[in-house]
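Record type: monomer structure entry
Structure origin: computed from sequence
Chain ID: A
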Amino acid sequence: MKLKEILKSPYFYFILLLPLGIFLLLAARFVPGFADFYYRSFYRVFGGIFGSITGVFPFSLMETGIASIVFLAVYWIIRIVLKAKEGKDAVLNYFEGVLMKILSIICAVVFLFCAFCGTNYYRRGFAEEIGLEVKNSSVTELYDLCAFLLEETTASGSKLYRKSDNLTVFEENNFSMANEAKAEFEKFCEDYGIMKIGFGRFGTPKPIICSEVMAYLQISGVFSPYTFEANICTAGPDFLRGATMMHEQSHLRGYMNEAEANFIAYLACVNSDSEFFRYSGNCLALLYSMNALYSADYELWYQLRVKYPDYLSADMAAQNEYISSHDTKVAEVSDKVNDTYLKLNDQQDGVRSYGKMVDLLLAYRRAM
C-alpha cells in the first residue's frame, strides 16, 4: 500500500493514536501534576462512562475479545493459504492488507493502555493521599504486626463455612461474591473519600471462564484498560479471592502500584460488614507479613506459626499446593513478563514491589 493510499485510508487515523498515547504517557511521567489532572478529568469521565456500559455484561468482554483475536488470526491464516491458489500477487496484496490491520490494532491497543492505564502509574499514591508515613521498621514492630494480624484473622475466620477438609468456602457462587465485593468496595471508597467513578455495575468483578489458563500463568486477577473490567481467576482456594476482587477494583480507580492495590484490598476487606471478606483481607496481609518475618527472624516467625488454628493452616497449605501445582515454565515466563511490565511502568523493584505492602501495613499500624 502506497503512502498516499495510507493517508486516505481509515488505518491512518489508527496509526495516529500511537504518538498520541506516547505523548500522554510522557506527559504523565515528566510534567508535575499532569497525571492527577488527567485522572480527575479525562480518565474519570470517559472511563466511568465506558466502564459503566461494559459493566452491564455479566461475562468478561476482555476474555471474549482475546478469543475473537485468536479466531481472527486463524481466519487470516486460512485466507492467506487459500489466496495461494490465486498466485503470488494475490497473496502479497492480501497479506499487505492484513499487516495494515494488525498495525492499526497494535496502535489502538498501545493508545488505550497509555490513556486508561499507563498514565495512572504516575499519579499521587494512596498512602500519600491518606497521610501515611512509610519508614524503616524494626523486627519487633514486624512481629507485633504479625501477631495483631493473626489475632484479627483468627477472629474473622472462626465462624465461616468450611468443607470436611477444613478449607474455607464462600457459601454462594463467584458472581454473588463479585456483587458483594462491588458493594463493599463502593462503601470503602465513600469512607476514604475516593472519587466516585461511573454508575450502575461499573467495576463489578467478573469471573473468568478460562480460569485454569490464568492459573497456569500464575495470575489471580487482571484489570483490563480496554474494557474497564476487573477480571478474576476462579481457580484455587476461595479464601483469598475476596481480597483479589478488591485489588482489581482498586486498579479501576486508578491505583496501579501493586503494593498499594494490595493495601487498599486489605483496608476494603477489613472494613467490610462481611466476615468472609474480613477474613480474606486479613489472610492476605498475614501472608505477606509472615513471609517478611520468616526472612527477618525465623524463630519469631515460628512462635506465631504454631498458633495458627487448623482452618488457617489448611487454607494456607491449600494455597501453597495450588501455586506449586501450577508452577510451570509457562508460569516462569509469565512472571518475567510481569516483572518487565512493572519495571517499564516505573516500578523499579519489579515483582519485588509486592513486598512493599508490608511497609504500608506497618505505617498503617503505627497510625492506628
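Annotation 1: Residues 349-354 have pLDDT under 50 and may be disordered.
Annotation 2: The CA atoms of residues 237 and 319 lie 6 Å apart.
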